[in-house]
Amino acid sequence: MRRPTLEAVAARAGVSRATASRVVNGQTTVAPNIRDAVLRAIDELGYVPNPAARSLVTQRTDSVALVVSEPPTRVFSEDPLFSTVIRSASVELETVNKQVVLMLASSASSHARVERYIAGGHVDGVMLISMHGADPLPAALSRLRVPVVSYGRPAVPVDIPYVDNDNVGGAELAVRHLVAGGRRRIATIAGPQDMIGGQDRLTGYRNVLRDSDRRSIVAVGDFTRESGAVAMRQLLGDDPGLDAVFVANDLMAVGALQSLRQAGRRVPDDVAVVGFDDIEAAQYTEPPLTTVRHPVVEQATAMVRLLLGLFEGGPADPVILPTELVVRESA
C-alpha cells in the first residue's frame, strides 16, 4: 500500500493542503472544528508526517544534541552521573515531543564531527556536559547560530548559559562538618583540575581550612574509583597521621575506603571520610558514606528547561542549585 499523503488527508477532511499542513505542524491559527476534521482524517488514513518535509516547514528538527566530552569507556562505566543526566534530559524533552541525540566528543576528530553535525542543522539546540579546560567545543559552538547550554559552568571564558550546583558551598559544608567533629589533619582527594567541579570543590575545601587554621593536604584523582584508591594510598604515605579526608566525588570515596581498609585504618574511628554527589552506592559502602548531595536529576531537568526557554527567546541567566550534607556513618 502507498503511504498516505498530506494531500489525501486534506481531501478526506475537506480542507486545503495548507490548512492540513498547519494542523500537522501544531499551529494554533486553525478553527477547532477544522482541526478536529483534519486529525480525524489523519487517524482514519494512518498518515505519518514526513520528518524531513516537516522540518523544512517548521525549521525545527525536534532533536537536541547532548554532547559528552568523555570517551565511551568513561560514559558507559560505573559512574552513574552520565546515565542519570541522559535519562533525565530525555524524560524532560519527551514532554515537549523532542528527543536526545547523544554525541561523544573526546578527540580532535570527534570534536570536528560534532561541530559539522550541529552546523548542518540536524538539531535545534545543544547541551554540553563534562567539559575540560582545553575543550574547543564551547567556543566553536557559541559561534554557530544554535542555542547552547552547559551542564556545569564552562571551564573556559565563553558566553554560554549554564546550570550548576553549588560546588564551593557543598565542599565547605563537608569540611566544616569534619572540623566540627574535631578532626585536625584533614586531607582531600580533589577532582581533575581542568574541570570546574574539581576546581570549585578544592576551593571550598581550602576556604574552610584557611579559616580554621589548618593546612591543606591534597592529592588529585580523576573522578574514578581507582584514582581514589591510588590517591588515598598516596595521602597515607605523605601524612600517616591524617584523621579525615574530603573526597571530591563518591566514586573516588569508594576507592579511598578500600585503601583505608587495606591499610588497617578504621572509618570513622581513625579516619573520617566525606564524599560528594550522594550516588546510590553511598548508602551501601562499609560504613555508609557521609556525602554532599549533588542534585543531578534536578540539574539535568533545569538544563533542558533553560534550553527550551532559549528556543522561545527566554533569559540566558545561569542557574545555581543548592547542595546539602547527608550524614551517615563514615563521618
Summarize the helices and strands and which ones pair or pack.
Layout: H1 6-13, H2 17-24, H3 32-45, H4 51-58, E1 63-68, H5 72-75, H6 80-94, E2 99-104, H7 108-119, E3 125-129, H8 137-142, E4 148-151, E5 162-165, H9 167-180, E6 186-190, H10 196-211, E7 217-220, H11 225-238, E8 244-247, H12 250-262, E9 272-274, E10 291-293, H13 296-311, E11 319-321, E12 324-326
Parallel strand pairs: 1-2, 1-3, 3-4, 4-5, 5-11, 6-7, 6-8, 8-9
Antiparallel strand pairs: 10-12
Q: Main sheet?
A: 6 strands, parallel
- Summing up helix and strand content along with how strands pair, one would put the structural category as alpha/beta
Rg, Å, rounded: 25 Å
Proportion of beta-strand residues: 15-25%
CATH class membership of the largest domain: Alpha Beta
Number of helices: 13
Name the CATH homologous superfamily of the largest domain: Response regulator
User: Structurally, how many domains make up the residues?
Assistant: 3
Helix content: 40-55%
Order of helices and strands: HHHHEHHEHEHEEHEHEHEHEEHEE
How many individual β-strands? 12
* Average residue pLDDT: 92
Give the oligomer, counting copies of the same chain as homo and different chains as hetero.
single chain
Q: List the uncertain runs.
A: none
Taken from the alpha-carbon principal axes, the silhouette is elongated
End-to-end distance: 68 Å
Question: Largest beta sheet: what is the strand line-up?
Answer: 2-1-3-4-5-11
CATH hierarchy: architecture of the largest domain: 3-Layer(aba) Sandwich
